[in-house]
Design brief:
Strand order of the largest sheet: 1-2-3-4-5-6-7-8
CATH topology: TIM Barrel
Number of helices: 11
Structural class: alpha/beta
Number of domains: 1
CATH superfamily: Aldolase class I
CATH class: Alpha Beta
CATH architecture: Alpha-Beta Barrel
Shape: globular
């Protein structure tokens, strides 16, 4: 079982802070560290940016592509693998020389063109499946073809209430596709992650990671700090016997949970690789809540 530290947007567009994340991930015992590669003007549709100009504020979350070589070298020097998530097609070629594997985000799962571009590199792929139905996951897996794929069950609620984790969907995915299955956590709950490992045999655990509670994503309450990671490792090392049932188990049906329903329509549209879905863009009006 492997642990991945998801830095996401918490780097603050600082190379020094980004390298500090790599160092902290290594000290916390992560097997890999992962960043995200996006550009706001290639992430959101013009209609979305006109309706919500505050989205431009997220430009401070953009990772300069030139940093990947140094970040990858730092990860490798600490015995970790390096990964990144491409959010636009050109990003795949920019990342290919540096990443050990690609991560595809839940928001991109409908964009099969991106999946095929990633698969064409031949590198392993970790695919998050938040908000997705089983049929949507099947289409994505088919698009990835013969590359090595690990599926991550995920609930795209920020944070996710433990009772909506639906961990039993991990078994559903494993039975449906015969692929390794893990858990991308947004609960920040030691017991939930331990349950994913012990009861549902997670092959990979992805934790959103922050250094100090001041990252862009930390106010949402879904990021782990190093002390929380240490508590999780102690819990797993203790070897406690899992109960037969747990509130986080859910019904095992691979379908959107209540806490992520508002996010479903803000997935990437497969026609142009931009958010939100085309049908939603027609309804956008300035000031309408995201």
């Amino acid at each position: 079982m492997r642990f991945v530290a998801e830095v996401s947007s918490n780097h603050g567009r600082s190379l020094e802070r980004s390298l500090a994340f790599v160092d902290a991930a290594g000290k916390s015992g992560f097997d890999a560290v992962k960043f995200q590669q996006f550009r706001i003007d290639q992430l959101f549709a013009p209609e979305a940016l006109r309706a919500h100009p505050e989205l431009y504020e997220r430009k401070r979350w953009e990772l300069p592509a030139a940093w990947n070589a140094e970040l990858a070298a730092a990860a490798h020097a600490r015995g970790m693998r390096y990964a990144n998530t491409p959010f636009y097609l050109r990003a795949v070629a920019l990342l290919e020389p540096h990443v050990d594997f690609f991560k595809v985000a839940s928001y991109q799962i409908l964009w099969l063109e991106l999946l095929r571009e990633v698969a064409a590199t031949g590198k392993p792929v970790v695919l998050s499946t938040g908000m997705a139905t089983l049929d949507e996951v099947r289409a994505a897996v088919d698009a990835l073809g013969e590359v090595e794929v690990t599926l991550l069950h995920c609930v795209s609620g920020y944070p996710t209430p433990p009772e909506e984790a639906n961990l039993a969907a991990m078994a559903t995915l494993r039975d449906a596709f015969g692929l390794p299955v893990g858990w991308s956590d947004h609960t920040v709950d030691v017991d939930v992650v331990a349950r994913a490992v012990r009861r549902f045999d997670a092959a990979l655990i992805e934790l959103h990671f922050d250094l100090d509670g001041e990252g862009e994503e930390y106010p949402g309450g879904h990021c782990w700090l190093s002390d929380g990671v240490a508590r999780l490792r102690a819990k797993l090392a203790a070897g406690d016997v899992e109960p037969e049932t747990h509130a986080a188990d859910g019904d095992g049906v691979k379908a959107p949970r209540a806490c992520e329903l508002d996010e479903v329509e803000w997935r990437t549209d497969p026609s142009d690789g931009l958010r939100p879905l085309l049908a939603v863009r027609r309804t956008l009006a300035p000031g309408k809540p995201l």
